[in-house]
Amino acid sequence: MSLTLERQQPLSTYEGWQTFVDARPLPEPEPLTKRQIRSLDDRARDEYDSARRAFHRDTLVRTDQLRDANDQLLDLLESNMQGVDRVKGAGVIDAPPGLGKSTTLNQFGREFHRRQVARYGETMEDGALHIPVCRVWFAGRMTTKSLNGMIFDYYAHPAGRFRRRSATEHNLAATAAEAAVRHGTRLFIVDDIHFLKPRTNDGGQVANQLKWLANEYPVTFVFAGVDLNNSGILEEGRLLETAQTARRWTRIPMSPFTVLTEEGDAEWKKLVKTVESRLVLGRVDQEVQAQGRRVSMV
After folding, report:
1. What is the tens place of the pLDDT at every residue in 47-93?
2. CATH class entry, domain 76-253
3. Where do the domains of the chain lie?
4. What pTM value is reported for the model?
């Protein structure tokens, strides 16, 4: 009997994001001894190893940096939700690759999504689906048309099928914003923001649209990117949109672990200890342990 292979939708679609939000922590596989693992037939061994890999992949270690970033993003979001008439700030996680920028934003978005649905329900007053979070990512050469297209694709908006036809950029932006309002979206997550080039004409227009969306609609933007200080995004430069971005965005840096300081060494050891405690490895057989003790006593 073969296993059922489930289709996995990307997080850049509502279906994929909702699946991520609904997912619950995987159960820890039963710890087996090395002898028990070797005694499994090929199919059982494959299923056991697959369950262990999935459990390890699903494990989230909440480091001090992750908790600090989460607190700053939450403070920013709650401040922006106090009123639509105030100038809204945005949060941006800036860190080298592989330090958990996307993971931090995804976890923050998932927790916010769950709280909003628990408080306001799964549907809006008119029956529209309540979608508290929209998540997109930047790639390659970004334009306002590609940004709006990503938003349409996330909501599965019918305008996405016609965005290449003769529609003004303003109309596309307004339609994308209306989709967010209709579904009660309050948080926009934008990953890989370093692909935005604000010094170019296209990049400047995208930056202006992000600013317009945040100012005109009740949404908060949070971003993640690499080396943003040197990308021009956070630079108080010549361009008006760049300067305003630098003033309104709160940079939340995440740094690599270090053992060169007492505090860093303690944090690293804490992380390693936590990871080790969650690894499901083959246990040593009790008989082998007993033999080892007898040998050490001789």
Report:
1. 999 999 999 988 888 888 889 999 999 999 988 887 666 667 889 99
2. alpha beta
3. 76-253
4. 0.82
